[in-house]
Amino acid sequence: MTEQHSVPKLVAVLGANGRMGAEAVKAVDAAPDMKLVAALGRGDSLEQLAASGAQYVVDLTVPESTEANVRFAVEHAIHTVVGTTGWDEGRLSDLESLLAAHPGTGVLIAPNFALGSVLASAFAAKASKYFESVEIIELHHPDKVDAPSGTAVRTAQLIAAERAAAQVPQSPDATTSERAGARGCEVDGVRVHSVRLRGLVAHQEVLLGGPGEQLTLRHDSFDRASFMPGVLLGVRNVAAHPGLTVGLDGYLDLGL
Amino acid sequence: MTEQHSVPKLVAVLGANGRMGAEAVKAVDAAPDMKLVAALGRGDSLEQLAASGAQYVVDLTVPESTEANVRFAVEHAIHTVVGTTGWDEGRLSDLESLLAAHPGTGVLIAPNFALGSVLASAFAAKASKYFESVEIIELHHPDKVDAPSGTAVRTAQLIAAERAAAQVPQSPDATTSERAGARGCEVDGVRVHSVRLRGLVAHQEVLLGGPGEQLTLRHDSFDRASFMPGVLLGVRNVAAHPGLTVGLDGYLDLGL
Amino acid sequence: MTEQHSVPKLVAVLGANGRMGAEAVKAVDAAPDMKLVAALGRGDSLEQLAASGAQYVVDLTVPESTEANVRFAVEHAIHTVVGTTGWDEGRLSDLESLLAAHPGTGVLIAPNFALGSVLASAFAAKASKYFESVEIIELHHPDKVDAPSGTAVRTAQLIAAERAAAQVPQSPDATTSERAGARGCEVDGVRVHSVRLRGLVAHQEVLLGGPGEQLTLRHDSFDRASFMPGVLLGVRNVAAHPGLTVGLDGYLDLGL
Amino acid sequence: MTEQHSVPKLVAVLGANGRMGAEAVKAVDAAPDMKLVAALGRGDSLEQLAASGAQYVVDLTVPESTEANVRFAVEHAIHTVVGTTGWDEGRLSDLESLLAAHPGTGVLIAPNFALGSVLASAFAAKASKYFESVEIIELHHPDKVDAPSGTAVRTAQLIAAERAAAQVPQSPDATTSERAGARGCEVDGVRVHSVRLRGLVAHQEVLLGGPGEQLTLRHDSFDRASFMPGVLLGVRNVAAHPGLTVGLDGYLDLGL
């Protein structure tokens, strides 16, 4: 009995041939408290997942297949950590109904597994009501097609909601003469600036300013490896959070 | 009765001729929910404080007089916000005894009133258990006589305590060949680096690193004005926190 | 004769009651190699300048009066350092004609006296032809009415000229989906982003990126005092540069 | 004849199996103006280099073999670009003698091929005489064994030499109470701080400060790919610089 804590978690990875999936296979394999029991890719059958004996599954596939994968896992009582995009309100609502019928199973859907990024967004929102001004700068490689980034949009929305709840007015801005675009775009009243630069990967700064002071929260993603500590943290905690959790911050101890 | 919320708080400032005190006099005077009823300096009598009708007092004096000032205020049921240094364990313990006998009165003793700095330290501590590595860089004007700064030492201690509680090992470091001092000093196992540069005021960065990612929490104090929002926040909340509070973070809503 | 080098330069300041002018009065007064012989403000006569015996004059007045001031000085063989704006092509051309008739006298017109800012712009231009990507972020207090700043526009123009001469193509950018303004404004093909934040003064970053690397040149102006070393450097060098010089970089030793 | 400029340069890479060498093989192969004619590793004979018809060779081997490689190349009139360490004064002097006997051949020995890093060091040295204060922070992954980095030491030496030549006094520092190491180490009177953090690669900041302003020159190496533009620039320019050149900055157009 005293050894029970050392029994490894049995983990399967879906999307194992993709770039993120391949990283996850390596990360699970290297984790001392996990055992990789299946690494499935395009063309493999979900029956292989059931046959593998997996207690946990990490879904890093594509929007077209993630919903079927997750539903299969829940129906087989396999806790699930999802990094695939494409979960709109309808899908989330359907999944919650399914989970209500399988009350012991947990699903985590996380748009972002980089711990530093999740923490920076949460801190930025929390701090933003104590400052007159807040703006966001996100910086990415020049092959990115959308501006601003999804993370910047979500961060701005979190900030806007927190400031609205605390009745903080919009950031002051006396600009009367602007070359079009100089002041960035607006997301729920928060200014966001997108830099595209060869050499960069994915970076974000939230700048908060008050009289005589500035608080800067910056996150740098240098490498896809940065998502793996978050994936493993998800696997380690999903069983203790039955039902649906959206966002890795739901598993972080951020009570200050 | 419906107007009751607009009755201004009656506030006195002690140390009104000092640099911080003079800023506080201006800040209280400009606050729409406060009325400055006394601005006392060296040579003024504490009886003037009692006579002023102050409900709140801000003490920005010197280590030699702060204890007598605070005790006088508590004995007269005046809520007190203290920015003066010199409160060692013995003084704090004596003050707690006095407050036990005046249960409705609140005292806030804050080593740092810059909201951004207090937030940055709290965030850094909270985040530090999720990262392999953490180091601190503090940067000040070259007339500062101590290195590292008191704020950096406190931040390092908070981080070290949080990591110890979560059983996070020390930051990795393969250095075997070091020019003396290159790797900074150590505070409870956390490396701290002190930069001194003409033009700077008071700045601090906490760098947190994990595989493929970095989280940076930076605070810049450009001006003494940066302390005033924190002083006013202290005055606004001290009555709701009877007894002794050390550190402005006790008044901040940081639950995430 | 051997002491001749220690004879102080006789300096007058025009616009002495303005904020920049008042700083200049203090700076000249404190400089060991200068003697302040006149500090003239609105309402004072230029005859007082002539009577003061000034060899050098610093003009920090307003666009309406700077041209008359400088012409008077040149006609009296007084070397002149100008920080006032409003010198368009016509005025500059007229001044050059006047200087041709007074060949021993020097005039420096500098849009920016912060040495760090002038150096950062010069370095950015020089470096920009070695990198695929370049963007500018300028950050100022929220009371500024124009965006982007004049310094950012000039920096972008310098960079664009240097890259054009070296036949470097425009920075790559795959953006196909943009929320209006996210990618900033364009100045001669260079993207510029303007942040406005309470607590800031005047700051600028030039970001240069190539495969796997980034070079960042950042300048922070915390205080009007930052212009004074440049003003004094101007006074010390203007006599050795007869004729018209535009831009403090003309006096800096930047040959690398 | 008019097409002559498009004849590709014939390039060999030595150390092709090492990490840097493998990158160089890819970079030469992808360069439109170059043709890879040999990629030699441990165990291959230098005769293969002679037989390949190479006009240029890139040496990215080990200190034990670089000298023999370069001498062989010079004796065969092959221009050489060297990224291997281990070239002490004695070896350099011997090489110069050899080159004197082969006056048409060029050799570039570069301790650093990252263009941004070379530029940042050159700019920092040039700017440093205009500022009261200068300090260096270098930041690397925690597996690095030496502190400070070789690049930081060289940068500090360049700065110290430039300031000495301009008779600029040491950076001011009023520190009287220091926890050992807080103020970093000293290299020729310049303070250097070494940060070691998981997730980082190789980064350096030079901070320059004067009254009310700061100039920051930062370089980030995210990836070994950052060295390749410098290697190719070396190959493209080495024939036009017969004899020995140490440092890539000798080939850069930095006249300002």
UniProtKB/TrEMBL annotation, chains A, B, C, D:
Residues 118-247 form the Dihydrodipicolinate reductase C-terminal domain. (S)-2,3,4,5-tetrahydrodipicolinate binds at H141, G150, T151. Residues 11-113 form the Dihydrodipicolinate reductase N-terminal domain. NAD(+) binds at G15, A16, N17, G18, R19, M20, G83, T84, T85, A110, P111, N112, F113. It is an enzyme of class 1 (oxidoreductase). InterPro entries: DapB_C (IPR022663), DapB_N (IPR000846), DapB_N_CS (IPR022664), DHDPR_bac (IPR023940), NAD(P)-bd_dom_sf (IPR036291). One of its GO terms (molecular function) is NADP binding. The keyword NAD applies. Pathway: Amino-acid biosynthesis; L-lysine biosynthesis via DAP pathway; (S)-tetrahydrodipicolinate from L-aspartate: step 4/4. Pfam families: DapB_C, DapB_N. It comes from the Bacteria. The active site is at H140 (proton donor/acceptor), K144 (proton donor). Belongs to the DapB family. PANTHER family: 4-HYDROXY-TETRAHYDRODIPICOLINATE REDUCTASE 1, CHLOROPLASTIC-RELATED, DIHYDRODIPICOLINATE REDUCTASE. This is 4-hydroxy-tetrahydrodipicolinate reductase. The gene is dapB.
